Amino acid sequence: MEKSIAELRETFKSGRTKSVSWRKKQLKAFLDLVNENEDSIFKALDQDLGKSPVESYRDELGIVKKSATYSLSCLDKWVAPKKGDLPLLLFPSKAEVIPEPLGVVLIFSAWNFPITLALDPLIGAISAGNTVLLKPSELAPACMSFLIQAIPQYLDNKAIKVIGGGADVGERLLELRWDKIFFTGSPRVGRLVMTAAAKHLTPVTLELGGKCPAIVHNTLSNPSKAKVTAKRIVGAKWGPCTGQACIAIDYVLVEEKSASTLIELLKKCIQRFYGGNLKELNSISRIVNKNQFQRLVNLMKDPHVAASVVYGGSVDEEQLVIEPTILLDPPLDSEIMNEEIFGPLLPIITVKNIEESIEFINSKPNPLVIYAFTEDETFKKRILSDTSSGSVTFNDAMIQFLCDSLPFGGVGQSGFGRYHGKYSFDTFSHEKSVLHRAFYPELEPRYPPWTNFKLMFIKLAYGFDYLGLMLLMLGFRKS
Amino acid sequence: MGNKSEDKAVFDTDSANQMVNKLRASFVAGKTKSYEWRVSQLIAMLNMMEESEPQIVSALRDDLSKPELESSIYEIAMLKNSCKLALKEMKHWIKPENAKTSLTTFPSSAEIVSEPLGVVLVISAWNYPFLLSLDPMVGAIAAGNAIVLKPSELAPASSSLLAKLVARYLDGSCIKVVEGAVPQTSALLEQKWDKIFYTGNGRVARIVMAAAAKHLTPVVLELGGKSPVIVDSGIDLKVATRRIIAGKWGCNNGQACISPDYVITTKDYAVKLVDSFKCELEQFYGKNPLESKDLSRIVNPNHFDRLSKLLEEDKVSSKIAHGGQKDETNLKIAPTILLDVPINSLIMKEEIFGPLLPIIMVDKLEESFDVINSCGAKPLAAYLFTNNNKLKEEFVAEVSAGGLVVNDTTVHLAEHNLPFGGVGESGMGSYHGKFSFDAFSHKKAVLYKGFSGDSSLRYPPYTRGKLRLLQALLSGSILRIIRALLGW
């Protein structure tokens, strides 16, 4: 392991990865990797998570292809220095901010989107000119094997490496010194990563999770909007990896009077999309492994929680499948309402007045996203100003992930740092300030011995009081 | 009689916890988010600086023997500028930024909204106790946060004055100062903050970041390092020398994070450079620099001893080319230049943070990049004096540091359009100007969608046709989309 990392450091020192043509070559090779191995990737995702090709393309392959293509087209713009405006006082000078790579970076990815969460940050790290070690999650073993085998075949394997193994490998990696660590996963492990990074003052980006709520307000009154609302909620709960996604809808908040309408719409939608019962379930992922399966089953064990199930609830332990399940008002102190569900169980919490949903959301740690289905502009403004989350999406869900111009990241317990589009490039770069000065003119008052005149001069200079300066120098102003 | 000292003695974890809770309640109540509040606090800070200039200058004289001009300029005038800039620009900074949306999420609109992080902790250093406490606070206030400030106990007069002034001028329900040393800082670090902004050294920074990790608190660490100065021949030597002196001894007598730490020049040029230094130093500080009023003293006996040891090391003490005089009673060390110290000496291993300037000689100036990079840690700043454009380009491309300046030193600190921060061992994050506002904000992404344009291909049951259409949509290519829609 140490040898690989030493090689990454050597390669970075050689300067090869700084060249824009190297970066473009890697990104092009990356696109080849994805294009030529579509079937293998589909197979691996099916093996690890039971994802269907459409889901795999939409959430994984398509995303990373789009990301690499976008980076290729923007790279020249991103690496260009940014000019800064300078005041007359510093004339003649030139100021710019130049992005440079950080060095050798470590990327940890998660098991639920094993391709996207590994390769999307990788694209950012390469675009910014770093050398990279990628540690995919062992809980998605087929994808991990695929990455270990495919990446060296297409990318510069002295600059970009993949390492397999489990938590012990992760621990050993964290003891070493990196120039940046990019981590996607749970808050618990996020703490361990940051603590380890602190020993070396390594900057980190932590993409964590949380309980992402969906507020459903007045879009249910109009039948066609109601249908679309239901579709989007169902699509954003069970569509992404059967709810095992950091930005999946965790729970729904709706007014008491609209709850039954919503539930009926959701039920119909679920049946249309995924089938009427456990046996007929299709177009949906499965639970990743026995551990997660057991955890989810345990969430429903509490008798009060079990009693609140209004749809679904059946499980198939052998196939690791849990059918889409809706719960109505489970007890607020139950586990299902206090930890991130990360699975196909959807609690619906009713409130008397929709405004209460804001207090409810604020009583929990900041989530990665808040979704709100509403056409009330005042309510939208309140949500924006009175809640805090990584991001907010109105009248849809999940789709904000596709916007390359929006920063993707959390706040508070949902993480810090961000990526996607240019933000990926920035997250793996150091923005170096550069100021070019000339030898003339020289400002004598900069130098001791200090006098009152010099003090006055500098005070006026700092205030950019050019008139005052002139008066002082011409003797019309007392010092 | 008993109360004040009791208060100070009993600031423990519980007190810290209570303080954070109170501030969080103020924050949640929305006090700090209001634009009027932010403006009122910045104006109050301006008044505070204007009305207290003599006391500030006096406190800095007590703590550091800082010359009045340095105090007026670096601690007071710079801070006032910071407040004025924030007052002028805050409306622009707060305004949401429009973000482009693409065909893939059509129809939609998007924006990035700045929101305050919440309750933030600012820990400052002893060398510029007012600037490094209040400048980050300007950003935190402009961004709408509640703040606890922990000034450095190594500048006690300044710390005490800060506590008094902040209590008198700023809103005590949202901004507090905690004085003290390690126990008080530790009590603060155990709490959950929404951001910690630390200025200081790498050793304590690791402790700060590890404490922050327990709560997943993001941090800005403004540290230091050995900021090198490369000096080429064929320049205006007098101007270059004066600018190096101004950045070294003119900044708290070398006790500044961006002070030139050491110089690299060619063997041929070194003697000329030393002579130029001797000449200009005498012009600035006279024949007896220990008696000059224009030089700060060393902050305390600890640092005085540390610097003395650097000078006394074998193989280093013989390399003193100028200066070296010390006055232990008054904690003064004269501007000292050393020529050709061994690269593995202590003075070349750690950040000097004092009035000693080693000059390292190389055969060719291009070798200086290797010298800098072999120091191991990326510095906060790096400087180059040259008229050779190719050398300038190589310098900018090869040297990684927080910030670079060509043909001057330290002035980039005053330029608010440039982000000020480190990389690697010199720190993470940046501030000044809008960067301060950003450092204390969360940039929330917001996507607005309508109900039209809902296509069934997003939803199951999944078919091959949907797959093809999705592939086309994600590629953004209109031609592909049309073809997929037509079933080709």
TrEMBL record, chain A:
Superkingdom of source: Eukaryota
Swiss-Prot/TrEMBL keywords: NAD, Oxidoreductase
GO cellular component: cytoplasm
Extent of the signal sequence: none
Catalytic activity line of the entry: an aldehyde + NAD(+) + H2O = a carboxylate + NADH + 2 H(+)
Active-site residues (renumbered): 207, 246
Domain Aldehyde dehydrogenase: 2-434
Gene Ontology molecular-function annotations: aldehyde dehydrogenase (NAD+) activity
Biological process according to GO: aldehyde metabolic process; response to abscisic acid; response to water deprivation
Similarity field: Belongs to the aldehyde dehydrogenase family.
Protein's UniProt name: Aldehyde dehydrogenase
Organism listed in the record: Hibiscus syriacus (Rose of Sharon)
UniProtKB/TrEMBL annotation, chain B:
Molecular function GO terms recorded: aldehyde dehydrogenase (NAD+) activity
Source domain of life: Eukaryota
Family of this protein: Belongs to the aldehyde dehydrogenase family.
Domain Aldehyde dehydrogenase: 13-446
Entry GO terms, CC: cytoplasm
Alphabetic keyword roster: NAD, Oxidoreductase
Protein name in UniProt: Aldehyde dehydrogenase
Pfam families in the cross-refs: Aldedh
One GO BP: response to water deprivation
Species name: Hibiscus syriacus (Rose of Sharon)
Lineage: Eukaryota, Viridiplantae, Streptophyta, Embryophyta, Tracheophyta
